[in-house]
Amino acid sequence: MHSDGKTIISVDDLSDSQISRLFKSARDLRDQNIKKHLNAVLMTAFFEPSTRTRLSFEMAAHRLGIHVSTFDASSSSMSKGESEEETISNLLAMQPDILVVRKKTPLKISDASKTGIINGGDGTNEHPTQALLDCFTLVEHFQSDNLKNKRILIVGDVRHSRVAHSNIKLLKRLFAEVVVLAPAPFQMDSLEIPHLSSFDDVDGPIDAVMCLRVQKERLSQSFHESEFVRDFMMNIERFRALGENCVVMHPGPMNIGIEISDEVATHQRSLIKKQVHNGVFVRAALLEHCLQRN
Ligand code: NCD
Fold it and tell me: Which of 7, 205, 218, 294 is deepest in the core (most CB within 10 A)?
């Protein structure tokens, strides 16, 4: 837990009132398009691939008039043997106003730094900005301040998904009921939330379903794709069975035909492109939040 307000490794680093102010300012930024941080510098350092997260932080910064400096791991001194930790410590020594980091292992910050640090996804641990934008998209969809009485089903590789780990924490803080559906090797160790292992066990209407990509790059055991597709892919029949108002979400990148069918991904009750759209404003709100604390 980081209490300086500008180190966001986990959703736990934000208080309830900070989250509700962030959501309000994401709404304001979406509706106003103001540039106001003309001297600030955002640095992005992604040691794992990214499309949406990095570009949406960079878009958010451009919208706010913040300068952007992008670290490129492939052309960096990492090819000369420098570690991720040592690289991060050197980037912090340059004192950008904000550093967004994505890396393969848990993000730990030991240096006291002037820089606001935001976790852009660390291994299987957390992805706080994805959870913020997902929950923002849900509260907007339900036109509410929280997710009281909403049942959210998370399907797929929950064990290896940093998106799921941050979302489970944040959904619960917003009072949602969370149910996980996953094959045994993809279930979490924690038994705090109900785990189902078959679609047949999903009981009653679901308000939103979050589909997850199988994190093949993080699996130690073999993965039987055809069995996963047969038993866990969100196809149109399964989606319809969740209820006539259920919306579908996915953080991307999607493997169409594995965890979700094309028909569901492009369904009129799909919020998938809304998530990407909202991501820019939620990240802009978080950049402002960190700059206000510098
Ligand atoms: C996710 C990630 O990198 O954790 N993508 C994202 O940030 N939108 C999900 C994934 O890789 O499956």
Answer: 7
